[in-house]
Structures are given as C-alpha cells and as structure tokens.
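Async update (no meeting this week)

Hi team, since we skipped the sync, here's where things stand on the single-chain job. The sequence we agreed to prioritize is pasted below, unchanged from the tracker. I ran it this morning and attached the output directly underneath so nobody has to dig for it. Comments welcome in thread, and please keep replies under the output.
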Amino acid sequence: MFNQLKSLLSKSSTGKVERAVDLAQIAPDQRLLVVGDVHGCLNLLLDTIKRLEAHIETVEDWDDLRSKLVFVGDYVDRGEQSAQTLNWLHNLQKSLPYDVECLMGNHERMMLDFLDDPAGRGARWLRNGGLQTLASYKIGGVRERSNVEELTEASMKLEAAMPEGQLEWLRQLPKKFKSGNVCVAHAAMDPHLSPEDQSTQTLMWGHNEFMTTPRDDDLWVVHGHTIVKEPRISKSRISIDTGAYHSGKLTLALIEPGVCTFF
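Output:
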C-alpha cells in the first residue's frame, strides 16, 4: 500500500472525476489530497485510498507534479479501529515524510490530555469516544466516573500499549498546513485573522464565525470537525467531515488549481 501511495503522490491525474467544481481562485502550490476525520474507521480510509488509486489507474497521461496527502486530524475515538488507524498513519508518515502531513485534531488533544492528567482531564475524553479508543488497545475496566486510581492505571496502560515513538509523534503534530492560497486546519480559522495569527483553540476546536462569515482575502480553508451530510464548498471554505463513524462515508478532496474533486 505504501509503495502504491508513493507512486500516487508523485503523479498527476487529469481525467474526468466524480464531482469536479471549478474554483477559479483556488491555487495551491502543489496538488493536495485532503482526508476528512477518520475517527477510528481504518477500513473506510483504506477503501478511500483504493478508490483514488483505481481512478488514477484509468488516466492515460501523467505529469511530474507532486502531490501532498494531508489528514485533517481526529484519527481516534468513535470508531472501533483507533489503535490501528494511528499505527497506519504513523507508519505512512515515516515511509513518506515529505509527501504526507498529519494534523492534530481536538480528539488527539483530548487523548493527550488523558495521558497527561487522567484524573483532571480524562473524563471529557472518555465521554467523547475515548472508551472506544481504549477498547481498540484492549484496555477495559474504566469509565467516565472511574476513580483516580483506575483512570491513572488506564492512562499508564495506554501509553505502554503505544508503539515506540508514536506518543512523541502525536505530541508534535502540526495544527495547520498551507500551500499557496489553500490552508488546511482541523476545525476552523478566524475569518478576520491571517493563518499565522490563528490560535490553537480556533484551529482545533472551531470559531463562532467560521461557518457563516466568508474571508475577505483570497485564502481557502479546508477543514473537518463540523459534520456535513455531503462535502461542501462555499466562499473561502471547503468542508469535508462527512461523519465517517456513523455515516459510513469518509471524504477525500483532491484540490488542484481551479478544481476541487471529492472522492
């Protein structure tokens, strides 16, 4: 799979696609393949990658324009394959460090909070999908109202169960990625501020004007976090969280100058 992705990221497709929307002003510096919130649904992620590969195999002409595969965060919780999803993404980025970017979502942040302060900040994570993540590591015996000892023991088991280097990788995940006039963030960007001036809180948890107030510059923001029934394009915003864990639909947006295609 990683070898196939390496070939994918170094090529370009120009054929007809499922849903292409002309966006004259969108101008990334490279081809972007942006994946929405996975939430422990590794099977859907692998199916989405296979569909993309199958499409590109049907295209006769290729050029040497490279692509960047970007994940918007929220790899864990809700679904049943959080551990497997993290392992797959971690190995993918180690194999393709210049071609893959994994951003941090608010669910990764809550997971780290649980590891750092299980008694003080663990309950929020457990009631928002953390129990499913622990189950994927075969860790049980804990619940939202568990006592300090039980929460601490579960956090220690979780850290011990993670492969070498994975916790450090999680802690260092960036909060945004920018290419040309396209910026990818997990949740949102303040429409009144530049990418450089965004707060971590906004990037990972959202902003009250993001979904209603278009930007007044030429920047386009691709994001997850807010579930939409279908991937949606509006002025300055591309929404791709289609609620994989309950809808069974994971969205990938292929963004090239002037065009956004959804898989």
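Quick observations from my side:
The chain has a mean pLDDT of 90.
The chain is about 35% helix and 15% strand.
Reply here if anything looks off.
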